[in-house]
Amino acid sequence: MKAGTGTRTVWRQRRAPVGRLFRRLEGLTAMQAFLGELFGTATLVLLGNGVVANVLLKDTYGSNSGSTSWLVITTAWGLTVTLAVLVALAVGSNAHINPAVTIGFAVYASDWSTVPVYVTGQMVGAIIGATLVWLQYLPHWARTDDPASIRSCFCTAPAIRSTPANFGSELIGTFMLMFVVAAIFSGNIAADGLEPGIGPFLVGLLVWAIGLGLGGATGYAINPARDLGPRIAHAILPIQGKGPSGWDYAWIPVVAPCVGAAVAAAVALALDI
Fold first, then answer.
1. 174 half-sphere exposure, CB direction, 13 A CA radius
2. Hey, which of 3-17, 118-132, 185-199 has the most confident mean pLDDT?
3. Does the model's pTM come out above 0.85?
């Protein structure tokens, strides 16, 4: 995230992960931040939700994945996060591609000035990515007779509906995302920072591990834009065979990840990670 001189000093003093990973982008403009987050998040949703569609929709080459479908989905999402971070960096942002991460960094740095630019880019990118998934699999929606499977190609839903448990699952998953990201880029690990490209790769492995270990309860949104943007697209696009967009559940994968990331950032500060 872009920050003023005072905030950059705080980052350096506290060995903040964002300062080490994205040091070269300290002077980025609002437009660079917006476009980087837009293209990065669009890449995230297109490739991530694309693999879900490939597995769940009828008559695709991936539709017979069977018992390996969860491994296919979690592996693809891990790879996708790495690629999306690289895209966002190349276009010119600090590659948060997740409003919860943006909020976590704002808490860490005590600077909320660029949160609106980042979150707007992330939301627009998520809607664009979801729309591209719809276009990519256009003939397959009509052949899929399960509205829940169609919706799963856009947004998450819990395996067992329980508001406290579902909220806790998303909070824990996002806490681990933010806290381990802080550990990965901590000066306690690499005093001079990681080599270029290593950070995005490790974050992709982290998301893969979260999906395999924690994702089975709610589908591990752990990213408000990744869930809300495609849910909006599901609601407004003329998708054949779709059902309700699940708005009664939609607040959980928005609020819980933001809480989890903020708590993780506070804990990282307390531990001087």
1. 33
2. 118-132
3. yes
Q: What is the CA radius of gyration of the chain?
A: 18
Residue-level length of the chain: 273
Confidence of residue 30 (pLDDT cuts 50, 70, 90): confident
**Confidence band for 33, pLDDT divided at 50, 70 and 90:** very high
Q: Looking at this protein, which amino acid is placed at residue 28?
A: L
| DSSP for the chain, written as a single string | ----HHHHHHHHHTT-HHHHHTGGGTT--HHHHHHHHHHHHHHHHHHHHHHHHHHHSTTSTTTT-GGGHHHHHHHHHHHHHHHHHHHHHHHTS----SHHHHHHHHHHHT--TTHHHHHHHHHHHHHHHHHHHHHHTGGGTTT---HHHHHHTTS---SS--HHHHHHHHHHHHHHHHHHHHHHT-TTT-TT-PPTTHHHHHHHHHHHHHHHHHTTTT-----HHHHHHHHHHHHHS--TT-----TTTTTHHHHHHHHHHHHHHHHHHHHT-
231, 154 contact by CB (below 8 A): yes
Give the largest CA-CA distance in the chain.
57
What is the predicted pLDDT for the residue at 24? Answer: 39
Q: How far apart are CA 73 and CA 63, in angstroms?
A: 12
In the chain the domains, ranked by start, together with CATH numbers, are 5-271 (1.20.1080.10)
